[in-house]
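#struct-help
A.M.: can someone run this one for me? Single chain, 175 residues.
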Amino acid sequence: MSTELLERVVIREAGPEDDAAVGELLVESFLTQYAKKLPEVVYTEERKRSLRDVAGKRAVAKVLVAELDGRVVGTVALWPPRAPGSEAWLPGAADLRQLATAVDFHGQGLSKPLLEEAERVAREEWRVPAICLHVRRGAVGVVRMYQRRGFVREPSGDLDMPSVYLEAFVLRFPR
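D.P.: on it. Structure tokens below:
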């Protein structure tokens, strides 16, 4: 994404009017990326429903969107400490999930402003010690992106679920 285009992107908190667009963006982005990079991954209708439940996420988490010329082109969700559904394993930590960009913006740097704002909220507004997140085992490009931002692997937070193994990463903030 060109610098000029990135300068036009607005990062803001999602509202009810964004729910449908964010839900479809999540489904399309995740299906497209996994089809390319991890073709063995199958998204069930239940998982798609979960991704589309943006109103449910907004009830417990801060959902951010990247908007370009009136179009939602990216999103990320941040659960505060102890929020229902949080998968953070460290006391007082936020939980970052469902970072996605519109398919036509993949690989263009749009995740950077979304992550910067999520990290700012966690560090400055919520004053948490860390952000926890999980990445599907095998999603090496996603892991590299988070590691470039300072997230480090922490196996103690891994989630071994019936349908997926999620590797844990954490970004600790200096005190």
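A.M.: thanks! The longest helix spans residues 19-37.
D.P.: also worth noting: The chain is about 35% helix and 25% strand.
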